[in-house]
Structure formats: C-alpha cells, structure tokens
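The pair is set out directly below:
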Amino acid sequence: MKEKYLNDIKTRFTGKTQELLINQLELFYQGGKITKTKYNVGDEVKLKKGTFIHGIFGLLDNFDFTIENGFISSDFTAEPRSNKINNSVGFWNIQEDVLLKDYIYNYSGFTITYSVGRGPEAKQVSELIPYHKFDEVTEKINDDDNIWTFWGDKTKEVSFIPSLVANKRQIAFILNMESDYAKKLSYNDVWNLEFDEEVLTNFLDSRYVEKFITNDRINRTAATTDRESSIMFGLPSSLIEGVFVGRKIENDKKALEYIKSKLPDCYICNLDGKVILGNK
C-alpha cells in the first residue's frame, strides 16, 4: 500500500506539498512506540492536553480497516470526495487536561452564538453549552439587555464520536500524542498557521480557500471549531491507546471481545468515562 500511496502523491501533487506528503508517508510507515496509559476496570479515564480522538462510522464496519491500515484520508483510499478539508484526517484535539466523562458531557451539548449590541458595533460570541444546560443558558441570555439575537446547533462531536444524545457513532479511538514521533506527524496539520497558501490550497475545497487562509484559521470559535486538527495524509494505528464506545456496543459482549482481541494492550471505556475492559 505504501507504494500505491507514494505513486498517488507523485501523480497528484507537486512542489512543497509533494515533498511534505512524501516525508509524512515515510514517517507514517516508519512507526514509533508509545507508552500507553494503563487502567483497571472501573477507573476513570483522563485525557491529557494534546490527546487526539477520532470516531468511525457504523458499529464494527470500519474497525478492521482502521486497525490494519491506520487513519488514512479517504482521498487516498477511495474516490475523491468534496469536503472542506481534503487529503487529510480530522481529529479532536484535547485542549486541556480533562476527565473523559466531563469531555463527553460537555460535547454532547450544543454551541450557541449570540450578538452583543446592535448595528455595526454588534459583536458575535460563540460558546459551548454542555449536555442538558440549554434552558439555563438561554434564560440567562434572554435576561441580558445587550443580547438581541441568538442561534444554536449541536456540537460537531455529536456527529463524529459517541455521545449522550446520539447513537450514530459507536466507536472512537483515543490516540496518545505525547511521543516525539507523534508530534512530528501531527505538526503537518492543516490548521497549523505556519503553512502558507501554496501548501494549503492542496488541502482545501476551492470554495473555502480564500476564507480559510485569511480568516477561519485565525478566528476560530466554539462553533467553527477551535478544537480540531486535520493531519495531512493521516496517522498510524500504533498511536491508539484506548477506545471509547457508545451504549450499543457497551452492551454487546461479542463486539467488546472482538475489539479487545484486536487491541489487547488498549483499554476500552464507556460514555460514563469509566474503563470496562482494562489493559493492566
């Protein structure tokens, strides 16, 4: 597969982008060991700042492919797709040390955006609203004379990882990004402000190039979002240290046993942030 991806890169890219992706590919297949956090059953999982999370579709539909091949952009493994960000893989980038249970609680909510003031001087503010906090927040906003309009949407996490409010995603991988090896790979992030237009145009849909380069990467908010990374080409599965699952798989003994058989040195945890299969 490495040769196939290398030929694809040489065919589709030139200049700095081609060189960057070839180096990323070599690093991807070079491999690197990580020191995995160890947990017993019942322990609460702690996410360190810089940890990556990535969810997959379905139940076990895409599980084997991910374990065997890694997290590789669909633009290299399938027909090219029209996304905002292409030729890369999206990950949730943990912004501060947090318990997994609190992370899930917060991102099972929604984002709200409201205007403070009126007219040309009005300022838009976006905030993350945790699970079951909608009424509390909107009542507070309605009592503020400086806030005239507001609108909201579910967090993007609800669509892409297991949550308390949706069953569409049942599996998410927790990646340990502490090693020098992982940091070298994750440097090649489309959101990295050090990359210029020459490079970024190869990773953006043409509809978003101008706005993304001049605005979106700088003015990120809870709604846009301010917690994503999009790694060029992708990351190897060797960085996985744990898996958290939705309620369907949590109650499916065979599915849990299958996941554990494929990742024997990784822990498995649930939406309560507690380990249900340890790795000590």
Q: What stands out?
A: Residues 109-154 form one domain.
